[in-house]
Amino acid sequence: MAARVPVSRLALLGAPGSGKGTMAHKIRLHFGITSVASGELLRDHIYRRTEIGHRARSYIVAGRLVPDDFITHLVMRELQQRGDDGWVLDGFPRTLPQAHALECERVRLDAVLCLDVPADTIRQRLSSRWIHARSGRVYNTHFNPPRNAGRDDVTGEPLVQRLDDRPDAVVARLREYRERTQPLVTHFASRGLLHTFAGTETNKVWPEIHAFISSHVRSLG
Ligand code: AMP
Questions:
Q1: Distance 202 CA to ligand 1 centre (A)
Q2: Is the dihedral of CA 2, 112, 101, 171 positive or negative?
Q3: CA distance 39 to 41
Q4: pLDDT digits (tens, 9 = 90+) for 52-89
Q5: How far apart are alpha carbons 115 and 202 in whole angstroms?
Q6: What would the pLDDT profile of 85-140 be if each residue is shown by its tens digit?
Q7: Over the stretch 135-188, which tens digit does the pLDDT of each residue have?
Q8: CB-based burial label for 147 (10 Å; 0-12, 13-18, 19+)
Q9: Contact 154, 147 (CB under 8 A)
Q10: d(Cα 63, Cα 73) in Å, to the nearest integer?
C-alpha cells in the first residue's frame, strides 16, 4: 500500500526512454505522490482531437519539443488544479525557459531526480516500447512484455507504437535532449536541487530513488 507522505514537489529529468514514466508510476504506488506528465497531457489532447492536440501533433511526430509558452501554459494550468498537493513533474521542465517560467510563477521544487542512462540503452528501449493509447500504459517487448503479445493487460485492446518512437523521430528527440534539456542539469545543480541516479536497469535504480525520497520526505516532515 502507498505510504502517505507530507507534500513533496519533485521533477524527473532524463532523456526520452530513461524511465521517467516508470519511476513516476512507482513513486505514485509507493508514496502516493501523483505525477503531472507533460507528454501524457499532450497525447491526451491528441487522442481527444482538441485544438491543443492538433497544434502539438506535428512537433511530437517530428521528435521536436513543442513551443515553451504552449507547454508551460498547459502544465501550469494542471498544477493550479492540483492545488497544494505534492506532485512529480514527469517531462517538465525540459528547457531553460521552462525552468525559468516555473521560478517566475514561484513554483517551488524540493528536488530534481535526474535519470542518467547510456545512449545505447535508450535507443534499444525506445525501439521496443509499446503503449496502450487510451490509458498511456507502457510495455517493453524485452523487459516488461504484455501478458498477451500486442494486447493491453487491463483492457485486452491492441497496443501501438508511439509515432515519435520511429527511428528518425528518436534521432531528433535525442538531439533536442542534448541541445535543450541537458543544460538543465547544470541549472538545477547550481540551485542544489539535482540528484543523479545512474544505471541501465530500472530495478536497480528504483531502490536508490526509493531510499532518497524516503529520507528526503522524512527531513521535510
Ligand atoms: P514524453 O512523453 O515526455 O517523451 O513527451 C513526448 C513529446 O511531447 C516530446 O517529444 C515533445 O514533443 C512533447 N513534450 C513533452 N513535454 C514537453 C516539454 N516540457 N517541452 C516541450 N515539448 C514537450
A1: 21
A2: negative
A3: 5
A4: 999 999 999 999 999 999 999 999 999 998 877 789 99
A5: 10
A6: 789 999 999 999 999 999 998 898 999 999 999 988 898 888 899 999 888 888 98
A7: 888 898 988 899 999 999 999 999 998 888 888 899 999 999 999 999 999 999
A8: exposed
A9: no
A10: 20
Residues for the chain: how many in total?
Answer: 221
> What is the distance between the alpha carbons of residues 85 and 168, in angstroms, rounded to a whole number?
39
Q: Give the β-pairing of 138-140 and 129-131.
A: antiparallel
What distance in angstroms lies between residue 148's CA and the mean position of ligand 1's atoms? 29
User: Is 94 close to ligand 1, i.e. is its CB under 6 Å away?
Assistant: yes
pTM, to two decimals: 0.88
CA 16 to ligand 1: nearest atom: 4
Grid coordinates given for 22: 516508470
Q: Which of 94, 106, 166, 191 is catalytic?
A: 94
Q: Which residues are annotated as a binding site for GTP?
A: 17-22, 129, 138-139, 202
Nearest CA to ligand 1 atom 14: 39
Residue 204 is a catalytic residue: no
Ligand 1 binding pocket includes 19 (Cβ within 6 Å) = no
For residue 66, the 8-state DSSP code is P
All three cell numbers of 99:
525552468
Greater pLDDT, 143 or 9: 9
Position 3 pLDDT exceeds 60: no
